[in-house]
Structure formats: C-alpha cells, structure tokens
Amino acid sequence: MCPSNSEIISVNIFRAGYENFNIFKDFSLTVRHGEFLGIYGSNGAGKTTLLKAIAGFPPPLFEGEVIVKGRVGYVFQNPDNQIIGATVEEDIRFGLENLPLDCETIEARLQETLLTFDLEKLRSKDTLTLSGGQKQRLAIAAIMCLDPDVLLFDEPFSMLDRRERRAIMSLVKSLRNKQITAVIASTNMKDLTFCDKVINLNGGESLDRVR
Questions:
Q1: How far apart, in whole angstroms, are the C-alpha atoms of residue 77 and residue 152?
Q2: Distance from the Cα of residue 162 to its chain's centroid
Q3: CA distances (Å), 149 to each of 135, 179, 209, 211, in order?
Q4: Close Cβ partners of 188 (under 8 Å, ≥ 6 residues apart)
Q5: Exposed/middle/buried for 136, CB within 10 Å: 0-12, 13-18, 19+?
Q6: How confident is the model at residue 206 (pLDDT cuts 50, 70, 90)?
Q7: 117 close to 141: Cβ distance less than 8 angstroms
Q8: Can you tell me the distance from the alpha carbon of 176 to that of 178, in angstroms, rounded to the nearest whole number?
Q9: In which band, very low, low, confident or very high, does the pLDDT at 139 lie, cut at 50, 70 and 90?
C-alpha cells in the first residue's frame, strides 16, 4: 500500500477512443492515496471509459499511460452485472476462494465482511430477491473483502430509491476509515458532495475542477 498522501493513480492519455471517435485527447489526472475523487459529467463524457482504463481495460484505441500503485476494485452501476453467487454468502465467498488464502482465513474474512456490511442476516438469502440497495451493498462488500487499495464506482447511486441512496452513500463515506482511495463517477453533482475534490469531465479534452 502507498504511503499516506502519495500519488497512487497517474493517468496520462494522448488520445483514446473507439474507431475514428476520440473520447480523450491530451488528458492527465492524478489521485493521491486516501483521496476521494469525484468525476462529474454528462452521459457520453467518458466517465466509464476512464474508470475502465484505470482498472486496466482501456478502449481499443489508446495512446498513453495509466499507472496504479495497488489493487483495484470496480463497482458497476448495475450490481446485477457483478453478482454471481446464488446467495449472499456464496457471492462473497467466490472472490475469497480465488485468492491464495487458507480455509481458516477465508471463513474469518467472510464473517468479518458480513458483519461490517450489515449482511449477516441476509447471508443465506437468494441474491435475485435482494432490493437494489441490498444488491449494491453486497457488490461493494464482495469487492472490499478482496482488500483493494483503489475502489472505482461507476454511478453507484443512480439505480437506487431515496432511502437506499442515503444508505449506500453513507456506506461509501465510511470506507475512508479503511484508507481506501476512491474514484466516483456520476452525472449528479449531489452524489459527489462528500468527495475531497470534484472534477468536471468535459468531453475528455479538459478537466475543470469544480471544488
């Protein structure tokens, strides 16, 4: 893990896009360890493309460099796209069993994750029957149990009702206590008020700091 306040993400893109369409041109961005960075922009501004590039999946046309000093976790806009277990417990366990951990460590980390993310009572529940907020909570928990250094959120609140939105936003805020670095993309500025800084992504050509 990077030392406190050191640079953990560095993005320098000459150009990036699809076929003859450039989404990014002469683009650069840095994020420091423990920082919560908000990326604000309209649909099509390149928010998801940027997050995927940070995660190691740049677009087909890519000229530049992305450096991330640590493990990356990605939380999708729609949690259905990343939940694969039949039950809450199975979904969290799946990721843990793909790590080089012994059985005792897996069970301990599983139990800790269920308790930390308030999923203990739901551990045997069919993931298909979860509410939107419960699914998003599970998606975050399943990533966090893998001990990432950087967490990328793609519109994490957009598919939630008002009550679930407040609950998941509170959960994301609490991740500061775990020394997580977060990049949160949204089309809604209100979703990003708790970030250390918010940047307006303007067609991938410029970054205007909003706060």
A1: 10
A2: 20
A3: 22, 8, 24, 24
A4: 157, 158
A5: buried
A6: very low
A7: yes
A8: 5
A9: very high
Report whether 182 contacts 70 (CB < 8 A).
no
**pLDDT tens digits along 103-115:** 999 999 999 999 9
Average predicted confidence (pLDDT) for the chain: 91
Nearest Cα neighbor of 66 from 18, 24, 9 is 9
State residue 201's pLDDT score: 87
What domains lie within the chain, and their CATH numbers? Answer: 33-57+71-209 (3.40.50.300)
Considering the entire predicted model, what is its pTM? Answer: 0.90
Amino acid code (one letter) for 50: L
- CA-nearest of 78, 87, 83 to 160 is 78
